[in-house]
Design brief:
The chain has 441 residues and is an alpha+beta fold. It has 13 helices and 27 strands. The chain is 20% helix and 25% strand. It binds the ligand O=C(O)/C=C/C(=O)CC(=O)CC(=O)O, calcium ion and magnesium ion.
Length: 441
């Protein structure tokens, strides 16, 4: 088990000055991992770590002799643009990288001269989906989201009786997962019309969903469930995830098999994977309130009860085309906290996913489901914030929204903070809606 160590020390500062700014998402205590290349170049994407407004080129750092041998071997085993071989190694190698970089990037480090040439400005790079994602599963752990969306879709039966026993999920699609900066065309399809005869056209109720995505590190062999006591060892780290949703397509198509074309046209993730180690100081007890069903034994465990939850602030911001043209920044629509929103922990999602023998693989992505807070203004989707499209949201520039318009950019943000520790951020997860593509005749 990994616990807080000197890499979390709040007094640590870096010789990369921008990493010491109080508002940075990427202080020396974070060290998230992503895939980058110089903007506009045709070179392969390579592994990097964000520090302040810079990226440490990890292969260059390996050549400079700054990283331990097992870390270097795992990084060199990665195919271009694919972190999977590194992810497969598990916690030991990941902690080795964290400790080595924490030492080398510290103020006063003797390795500064060797590491300095391995830095590239974030403003000069482009980022990619960090690994090959063979499997993507989206859970439904946000109980406030499940209850309010359930009321809209099924007024008599909002929260199904299985909800408090089974971490509900569905298998999503990997081909349309993109990284922050992704833009996508408004989907079109079948929309429920009068008398159960559908209309065809562009989605009129386009929405976002505020989620976290957990990347799997080491996988499990087919037929061998991961017990709760080992589940955390299979988690690599977290990103933000926007599960763009076409609510009108969804309402018509979802019964009986669940989401299909309403959710597979685009999914946007943030580029930097914040490791489980960086989040260590923000673990929180997982408590089931009095009177709630206790998890079945295969979803229960001492470590999960003690520290299965995560204290993470989540936010949704919107920048409309008019705001952009007027030079106005995005505006915050809501905030929630993962520990108040999720009915199941990451470890429970992972253990449940494998209990039937299903094999997870390094680089698989588990979406948490929409993380709405307990009060109505904490909805993690427009569907909730506008009561199903019935109450317009008024923006500070005078515009209104029920659902997304073409040109809208949605930005998800997250950070963890706690007295005595540095604030850890995730960077932006931004995506923009483009107009629907007319069908060719
Ligand atoms: O049928 C329903 O109740 C709703 C299903 C979903 O919206 C699926 C989903 O993406 C769940 C989530 O993000 O929490
Ligand atoms: Ca979702
Ligand atoms: Mg999606």
């Amino acid at each position: 088990m990994y616990r807080i160590d000197d890499t979390h020390d709040a007094s640590l500062t870096s010789w990369v000055e921008s990493a010491n700014a109080p508002a940075t998402d990427f202080p020396i205590q974070n060290l998230p991992i992503g895939m980058f290349r110089r903007a506009g170049s045709a070179e392969g994407f390579r592994p990097g770590v964000a520090i302040g407004d810079q990226v440490v080129d990890l292969l260059a750092a390996a050549d400079a002799g700054v990283l331990p041998d097992d870390v270097v071997a795992a990084l060199r085993a990665c195919a271009p643009g694919q972190l999977n071989a590194f992810m497969a190694q598990g916690r030991g190698v990941r902690v080795g990288l964290r400790r080595a970089l924490s030492q080398a990037l510290r103020q006063g480090s003797a390795q500064q001269a060797r590491l300095q040439p391995c830095l590239v400005a974030q403003s000069a790079v482009e980022l990619a989906v960090p690994c090959r994602i063979d499997g993507y599963t989206d859970f439904y752990t946000g109980i406030h989201h499940a209850t309010s969306v359930g009321k809209l879709f099924r007024p008599d039966n909002p929260l199904m009786p299985n909800y408090k026993w089974v971490p509900i999920g569905y298998h999503g699609r990997t081909s349309s997962i993109g990284v922050s900066g992704q833009s996508f065309h408004r989907p079109q399809g079948q929309i429920k019309g009068a008398a159960d005869v559908p209309e065809f056209g562009p989605c009129r109720r386009l929405d976002y969903e505020l989620e976290l995505g957990a990347f799997v590190g080491p996988g499990n062999p087919l037929g061998r469930p991961v017990p709760m006591a080992e589940a955390e060892e299979h988690l690599f780290g977290l990103v933000l995830l926007n599960d763009w949703s076409a609510r009108d397509l969804q309402a018509w198509e979802y019964q009986p098999l669940g989401p299909f074309l309403a959710k597979n046209f685009a999914t946007t993730i943030s580029p930097w994977i914040v490791t489980m180690e960086a989040l260590e100081p923000f673990r929180a007890p997982f408590v089931r309130a009095e009177g709630e069903p206790q998890p079945l034994p295969y979803l229960d465990g001492a470590e999960n009860r003690e520290r299965g939850a995560l204290d993470l602030e989540l936010e949704v911001w919107l920048q409309t085309a008019a705001m952009r043209e007027a030079g106005l920044p995005p505006e915050r629509l809501m905030r929630s906290n993962f520990k108040d929103a999720a009915y199941w922990t990451l470890a429970q999602m992972l253990a449940h996913h494998t209990i039937n023998g299903c094999n997870l693989q390094p680089g698989d992505l588990l979406g948490t489901g929409t993380q709405s807070g307990p009060s109505p203004e904490q909805g993690g989707s427009l569907l909730e914030l506008t009561a199903g499209g019935k109450q317009e949201l008024r923006l500070s520039n005078g515009e209104t929204r029920t659902f997304l318009r073409d040109g809208d950019t949605v930005v998800l943000r997250a950070h963890a903070e706690r007295p005595g520790f540095r604030r850890i951020g995730f960077g932006d997860c931004a995506g923009t809606v483009l107009p629907a593509v007319p069908l060719s005749p």
